[in-house]
Amino acid sequence: MATMDSLISLVNRIQRACTLLGDHGADQASHSLWESLPSVAVVGGQSSGKSSVLESIVGRDFLPRGSGIVTRRPLVLQLHRIEEGLQDYAEFLHLPKKRFTDFSMVRKEIEDETNRMTGKSNQISPVPIHLSIYSPNVVNLTLVDLPGLTKVAVEGQPESIVQDIENLIHSYVDKPNCLILAITPANQDVATSDAVKVSRQVDPAGERTFGVLTKIDLMDRGTNALDVLEGRSYRLRNPWVGIVNRSQEDINRKVDMIAARQREREFFNTNPDYAHLGSKMGSEYLARLLSKHLESVIRARIPGIASFINRCIDDLEAELAQLGRPVAIDAGAQLYTILELCRAFDRVFKEHLDGGRPGGDKIYIVFDYQLPAALRKIPLERHLSLQNVRNVISEADGYQPHLIAPEQGYRRLLESSLNYFKGPAQASVDAVHFVLKELVRKSISETEELKRFPTLRSEIAIAANEALERFREDGKKTTLRLVEMESSYITVDFFRKLPQEVVDKGGNPALASAEGHFQRIGSNVLSYVGMVSETLRNTIPKAVVHCQVREAKRSLLDHFYAQLGRKEAMQLARLLDEDSVLMERRQQCFKRLKLYKSARDEIDAVCWSG
User: Fold this and answer.
1) CA 25 – CA 430 distance, rounded (Å)
2) Closest among 35, 53, 34 to 44, alpha carbons compared
3) Range 151-171 average pLDDT
4) Rounded CA gap, 289 and 266, in Å?
5) 118-147 pLDDT, tens per residue?
6) Does the predicted TM-score (pTM) go above 0.90?
7) Chain mean pLDDT for the chain
8) In what order do the strands lie in the sheet with 95-100?
9) Are 520 and 390 in contact (CB under 8 A)?
10) pLDDT grade, residue 504 (50/70/90)?
11) Residues ≥6 apart with Cβ < 8 Å to 592
């Protein structure tokens, strides 16, 4: 089993690591881990002796003193027990490379750091100061010294100061993992104690409250604090502990804290009122009691903490995998990274075309609905009206009318009719082009790996769209060539197989050779154009797919790849100019992951030792 010191030391180290991610909770995840760890909040009214209790536990004179509100920022005090014979020292989280051995300078730094945040006023700040003290004369423990409760605002303080202090204190003591060290002076009725009032609000059963009675030696002659200490005045689940603070004269004479502890022991052991409780009184006993209780709380919480840490590690590793590796420095690795990102985009684009993702079906809609509809809308009936056929035939004949069949007239009618097919052909090319452009846009936005690199994302979009423009031009040329091919060579067999003209049923050959003749010509041309329309309905999609869709799948970024090979290292680096928000996010994830893995390793090492 892990020892008491090892468990509490473990929590101290994890709490300290949490604060390194941003002052006790600037990072949400480290804040959650912090809140899952037990700590001890020191609560009391002004001049209740809070500072003296803390200094007695530490065995050092290091806290600011004075009248009014002296503690104006929470002080997170982590005590670390070191080997006998080593010198005491202190470290502040905001001064990580500075070690203090003169504890009067610790006091000055607390004052200076408080003033840096609040100014030389009586206002308070919720931003804590983090202080670690290493000494052979302490137990492993984390204590949070909070501003003293007050009932009225004094000059220089906002009217809200009373409520502000209560809110700050509750932000700590409301947490179920927080033990409450309720400081009450013995010369005050415990029923009116500010600390007891707060404790009763958040811990009515008294399960996580430790009552501390200070200034016992200053009680009126003939009175004692036994009713409180023995739990008759206000019962708690944990025992009350009496403390004898140093007097102001002792403080002025700078009486050694170790000597003050000795005098405290003598007071309880020799005083007839308290001698029977002597072994369970004093600051040394209080520190051991807190440490022991804290150890039992930690032991009960360890499985839950470990489970929370493992979940966070899994989430962070998944997020880091999504954010991607940090950008390489050398040009070769950068080029490889860019090519990998381009391939990732290309895979997504092809999935859209091939049906793995939505969007490719819109190309089929162009061929199966839009193109046939456009072909049906060609105004052939108007173009091949009787009047227009007569005019075209007459113009083609010139001064000499045709003898049998007006071949030149036929050709003119066919060519002019087939020209109408150029519009639907070009419209199909444009429609597919816009579908491909939209798929490029969607593919870029859906390629997770590209989200890190806005410059590269923009360059890929430009290169892909330029390639699509080239494919569109090729598609237009090819589809127009298909139409022109139909105009260039007329299928003669079609007309040879047509039935010959017949005499009008009324026996009027003149009518048959006039209007009926031109109607039949129009009908023949319309039949031929209908045959061509069916052919183009099948060949235009083939040309579009061959020139645009197939090329987009095969060589969308080929030109871009050729340009990459000619870029200098600095130009490649600019393409991988990562989004600053994502860079910051990755750094935070790395820090958090390091914290959680370190915490997990610490827990494993401690729980399996001994």
Assistant:
1) 56
2) 53
3) 82
4) 19
5) 877 777 888 889 999 999 988 888 889 998
6) no
7) 84
8) 95-100, 89-92, 129-135, 75-81, 141-145, 39-44, 178-185, 209-214, 241-242
9) no
10) very low
11) 21, 27, 29, 30, 312, 316
How many H helices and E strands in the chain?
25, 9
Q: In whole angstroms, what is the distance from residue 101 CA to residue 362 CA?
A: 76
* Contact criterion met (CB below 8 Å) for 11 and 38: yes
Closest CA to 371 of 551, 553, 542: 542
Which range is least confidently modeled, 42-46, 337-341, 377-381, 509-513?
A: 509-513
Q: Give me the mean pLDDT over the 64-82 stretch.
A: 82
Q: Answer left, alpha or beta for residue 119, where phi above 0 means left and psi between -120 and 50 means alpha.
A: left
DSSP state of 497: T
Q: Which structure tokens are listed for 591? A: 């820090």
Please state, as a whole number, how many other Cβ atoms lie within 10 Å of the Cβ of residue 186: 21
Coil vs helix vs strand at 131: strand
- Helix H or strand E segment including 79: strand 75-81
Cα separation, 21 vs 17, whole angstroms: 7
The DSSP secondary structure of 324-393, one letter per residue, reads -PPPPSSHHHHHHHHHHHHHHHHHHHHHHHHTSSTTTHHHHHIIIIIHHHHHHTS-HHHHT-HHHHHHHH
Q: Per-residue pLDDT tens for 543-578?
A: 999 999 999 999 999 999 999 988 888 888 888 887
pLDDT of residue 93: 86
Place of tokens 């302490």: 138
Helices 454-488 and 515-544: crossing angle in degrees, nearest 10, is 150
Q: Which of 126, 134, 215, 239 is nearest to 172 (CA)?
A: 126
Give per-residue pLDDT as tens, 451-466: 888 899 999 999 999 9
**DSSP helix/strand/coil, 44:** strand
- What is the C-alpha to C-alpha distance for residues 164 and 467, in angstroms, rounded to an integer? 64
Helix (H) or strand (E) holding 493: helix 492-496
Quote the CA–CA distance of 112 and 462 in Å, as a whole number: 56
* 567's tokens: 């870029």
Q: Which residue has the tokens 């797919």?
A: 545
Q: Which helix (H) or strand (E) holds 135?
A: strand 129-135
Model confidence at 31: pLDDT above 60: no
- Look at the chain and count its residues: 610
Please give the structure tokens belonging to residue 242.
Answer: 């009496």
Nearest-angstrom CA–CA distance, 527 and 516: 16
Report the chain's terminal Cα–Cα distance, integer Å: 5
Among 177-181, 215-219, 320-324, 335-339, which is the least confidently predicted range?
A: 320-324
Q: How far apart are CA 159 and CA 400, in angstroms?
A: 113
Name residues whose C-beta falls within 8 Å of residue 358's C-beta, 6 or more positions apart in sequence: 352
Q: 90: how many CB neighbours lie within 10 A of its CB?
A: 23
- Give 387-428 pLDDT, tens digit per residue: 888 888 877 766 666 656 687 888 889 999 999 999 999 999
Question: Which residues is 135 bridged to in the sheet?
Answer: 81
Element (H, E) at 214: strand 209-214
Select from 340, 352, 548 the least CA-distant residue to 460.
Answer: 340
Q: Is 76 helix (H, G, I), strand (E, B) or coil?
A: strand
